[in-house]
Specification:
The N and C termini lie far apart (about 55 Å). This protein is of the alpha+beta class. The protein folds into 2 domains: about 200 residues, q2cbj1_9rhob like domain (Jelly Rolls); about 140 residues, no CATH class. A hairpin with a 5-residue loop joins β2 and β3. The structure holds 2-oxoglutaric acid and fe (ii) ion (FE2). The site of 2-oxoglutaric acid has 7 residues, from β11.
C-alpha cells in the first residue's frame, strides 16, 4: 500500500526514444535470425537464440538500448538500481495475430514480471495495418505504434491491455520485461550460454561467427498447427523471395531424402536468369546478406567505387529448373508467403533495383560489420563474466 502511494505511476509513452537507425538495425537482426514464435503468426528472436545459432555478436547492438531503457524504467517507477532485465526479444506479428485483454503477469510462472517495455520498431499504416494497442482504462487509452516510440507500464492488473488483429504487413517490437528479483536476471543466464558457446568457437577469431541454423521446424511457417512441411513455407526462403532473390544450390543433383539438409549447405543467390557467384555457407548466411543489403541499400554509392564488380553468371535452363524445384519445396504456399511478408507501402522499388555490384559491396560490408561486432563481443565477454552483468564496455586505443 505504502509502495502504491509513493509510486502511483503506472505507465508512460516515450516518443522517439530510439533513433530510426537503431530501429533499422534491430529490424535487420530480426529479419535475418527470427524463428516461428510461441503463437501462430508470430515470429521471434531471443538473445539466447542468437547465441545458440552462432550469432552472439548480434547481441551487441541491443546493449546501449537495454541500458537506456533500464535507466528510464527505474527512474520513472522510482526503483533505481533495483531492477533486472528478465527477458529481451524481438517479436513480430503478422496477418491474423492479435491479443485480447490481459495483464502481462497473468500466469503463475509470469509473476516475476514487474514492468513491461515495448519499443516499436516500425510504424502503423506505413509497415502494417491493424495492430493498435489499447489500455482498458486510464490515459492514454490507445497507442498507435510508431517507429522509435516506447511504451512502459507495470505488468500487473492495473494495466489490462489488448492488441488489435494485424490485417497486413509485419509489426515489429523490441520487448523487455523487468523484474525486482535477481533470480530472474537474464544477463546471468546469457553469460553462462555465452561462456559455453563462444569461448570454444572463438579461438580462431571473430570472423568465424557465421550463422548456424536451428532445427528446420523452427523456420517452418504454417497455417495449420500440425505442420509436416506439406503446406506453408520456410521463413528464410520466403524472406529471400519477397526481396526478389532466388536460392540456387551448387550441391549438384538434388536428392529428395537430403532436402531438409540442403539449407544447411553452401548455396548461392540468383535473380531472374543471373547467378551471383558468391557462395554463402547456408541459408541464414544468404538471408543475412539480403537483409543487410535491404537495410543499407540507400548508401551503396560510396562503396560501389571501392570494389571490383563481380559479374553475374547466366543460368542455363536446367539450372533455372532446379531453382523452381527448390522453390516448390521450400515455398509450398508461395501466395501465403507473399501475403505474410510483403510490406505495406515501403520499398516497392527495391525488387527492381538490385545491382550486383552494389550487392557485392553489401556482402563485403556485412563481413566488416560482423567482424567489428564479433571483436567487441570477444573483448567484452571477460568483463561480463567478472561482473556477471552484460553492459557496454568502453574500450580505449585503436
Ligand atoms: O506488442 C504489443 O504492443 C503488446 C503485446 C502484448 O501485449 C504482449 O505480448 O503481452
Ligand atoms: Fe501484454
Amino acid at each position: 500500500m505504502e509502495e502504491e502511494s509513493k509510486h502511483p505511476r503506472r505507465r508512460s509513452i516515450l516518443q522517439k526514444f530510439l533513433s530510426l537507425n537503431e530501429c533499422k538495425e534491430l529490424e535487420f537482426i530480426h529479419k535475418s535470425c527470427s524463428t516461428v514464435g510461441y503463437r501462430p503468426n508470430v515470429l521471434s528472436t531471443t538473445l539466447s537464440h542468437l547465441i545458440a545459432t552462432n550469432s552472439p555478436h548480434f547481441i551487441i547492438p541491443f546493449l546501449p538500448i537495454r541500458e537506456r531503457l533500464k535507466e528510464k524504467v527505474e527512474e520513472f517507477f522510482g526503483c533505481e538500481y533495483e531492477l533486472f532485465i528478465e527477458f529481451t526479444a524481438l517479436i513480430s506479428w503478422t496477418r491474423g495475430a492479435s491479443c485480447g485483454w490481459h495483464s502481462d503477469d497473468n500466469r503463475p510462472y509470469l509473476k516475476q514480471r514487474h514492468f513491461t517495455v515495448f519499443c516499436y520498431l516500425n510504424s502503423y499504416d506505413m509497415d502494417f495495418k491493424g495492430g493498435l494497442f489499447h489500455f482498458q482504462d486510464g490515459e492514454p487509452t490507445t497507442v498507435v505504434p510508431l517507429a522509435g516510440d516506447v511504451v512502459i507500464y507495470t505488468a500487473d492488473s492495473s494495466n489490462i491491455h489488448s492488441v488489435d488483429e494485424i490485417i497486413n504487413g509485419e509489426r515489429l517490437t523490441l520487448t523487455l520485461w523487468f523484474s525486482r528479483g535477481s533470480a530472474h536476471d537474464e544477463d546471468a543466464k546469457l553469460i553462462t550460454l555465452l561462456s559455453k558457446h563462444v569461448l570454444c568457437s572463438s579461438c580462431d577469431g571473430p570472423e568465424l561467427f557465421l550463422p548456424l541454423p536451428a532445427s528446420s521446424n523452427m523456420y517452418w511457417f504454417s497455417q495449420n498447427q500440425a505442420s509436416d512441411h506439406q503446406s506453408g513455407f520456410d521463413i528464410c526462403c520466403a524472406r529471400i523471395h519477397v526481396n526478389g532473390f532466388d536460392i540456387y544450390s551448387s550441391q549438384g543433383k538434388i536428392c529428395s531424402t537430403e532436402l531438409t539438409e540442403l539449407l544447411l549447405e553452401p548455396l548461392q543467390l540468383a535473380k531472374g536468369d543471373e547467378l551471383f557467384e558468391h557462395k554463402f555457407v547456408n541459408i541464414l548466411h544468404a538471408l543475412q546478406a539480403v537483409q543487410f543489403y535491404r537495410w543499407r541499400a540507400s548508401g551503396w554509392d560510396i562503396f560501389k567505387a571501392q570494389v571490383e564488380p563481380r559479374r553475374p553468371i547466366r543460368l542455363s535452363q536446367t539450372e533455372q529448373g532446379e531453382i523452381s524445384y527448390l522453390k516448390s519445396i521450400f515455398l509450398k504456399d508461395q501466395e501465403l508467403a507473399e501475403a505474410v511478408f510483403n510490406t505495406v507501402k515501403r520499398d516497392e522499388g527495391l525488387q527492381l533495383s538490385i545491382d550486383w555490384a552494389n550487392f557485392s559491396a553489401a556482402v563485403t560490408a556485412l563481413e566488416d560489420y560482423s567482424c567489428k561486432l564479433g571483436k567487441e563481443l570477444l573483448n567484452s565477454l571477460p568483463h561480463w563474466r567478472t561482473h556477471q552483468s552484460i553492459y557496454c564496455v568502453q574500450f580505449h586505443g585503436p
